[in-house]
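Interim report, section 4.2 (structural modelling).
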Amino acid sequence: MEEQKWDQPMGGFNAASRSQMAEAAAGGEESQRTLYPYVTGTSVIALKYKDGVIMACDTGASYGSTLRYKSVERIKAVGKHSLIGGSGEFSDFQEILRYLDELTLSDHMWDDGNSLGPKEIHSYLTRVMYNRRNKFDPLWNALVLGGVKMGPKGAEKYLGMVNMIGTHFEENHIATGFGNHLAIPILRAEWSEDMTFEEAVKLVEKCLLVLLYRDRSSINKFQVAKITTEGATIYPPYSLKTFWGFSHFENPAQGAVGSW
Amino acid sequence: MAKFSPYENNGGTCVAVAGDGYCVVAADTRLSVGYSILTRDHSKICQLADKCILASSGFQGDIKALQKNLAAKELVYEHNHNKKMSCPAMAQLLSNTLYYKRFFPYYTFNVLGGLDSQGKGCVFTYDAVGSYERTGYSAQGTGAKLITPVLDNKLKSPNPLILPARDAVTPLSESEAVDLVKDVFASATERDIYTGDKLEIVVINSSGIHREYIELRKD
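Predicted structure of the assembly:
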């Protein structure tokens, strides 16, 4: 045991030694902590627009490389003012929804005319994710939290993200997973302040289409949700039109010089 | 299979320079992960007390937890002692807080800047587990090794090796120090991929705290 400790590289613990120590201490029990994700959702995209926040994602959940579930709702309303979208391990997302249920319930039971806004819920989720990470038992998700709440300066829009180790930030547009690489460049170029709902949906669909073409875990069944001062609306799922009529796809062997 | 690591480096650089009667604390506002930029507008600077500013770079989850932790402890101190914490007191508290997590560290690289009880500028520089010293200036983070040699050259602070030990603060004026900080960040931005977007500069002097932002290269 002592030898192992001194052999560890500088810079703190790694999960392997930790679980070995836990095993030794607990008398040989297997680690009960999350080691890897099993059923996962892919990207979630969100952006602020004139009336509030729009969030969208596909309705698929993969089991490794199998597209296991095709009608999964990965965006949910939280309280009166927020939407949460989750990518990553779906069971952990469901667990988070249970935590949020408890949170919103006790908030409601105060019955004091006050209700948790998106900023507060984002802060709560950040603490939850960070504390689970501290225990080496993370909730394997990247969460997007968006909402609108009336404040002293009028309707205050909020959009933020938190990932499985507690990294969090606020922005005008958010994307998780592959969306970070494929959708964010589009959003950075084409997002503007105070877009109308139609413009925002068009922009979101543009991103979803790119993800559909290029992210192999994405499916052609999407849900768009919006949150405004009037409340949350999650629209029924729909598909996007794709285009495959490129000349190269028509006769792929045409220019190929083959020996077989 | 994805292996869980509890750390990631979100990049960024922090600099602090102390002068006679002022202190400049500056940090870029880029938050990165891997080769991606998460956001261009995230502050790394936290005001802990009247004359005490903390700038941290490293893993952002730990930075937030650390800054929250210190702000809470400062409030408790205020309630117990009926005054705000002084910068040297906060310096010791930060060191203790970091060492408390010696065996699962806060992956944070901090510079603490402010005015001491005599009103002179002070800068404290830390490693991730709490070893610290008071200096006249410091840089931490991904761009630190690009910036420190320039500060060594330009600040005209007394050589730390000569005896008797001399006060480490720079003889430069406040505006000269601020200009120098802007320059070093512009240079670091050129070569460090994790530094850029915007620079947040906070200046503390006897008249209070003043904040300004300047644009940096976004590539």
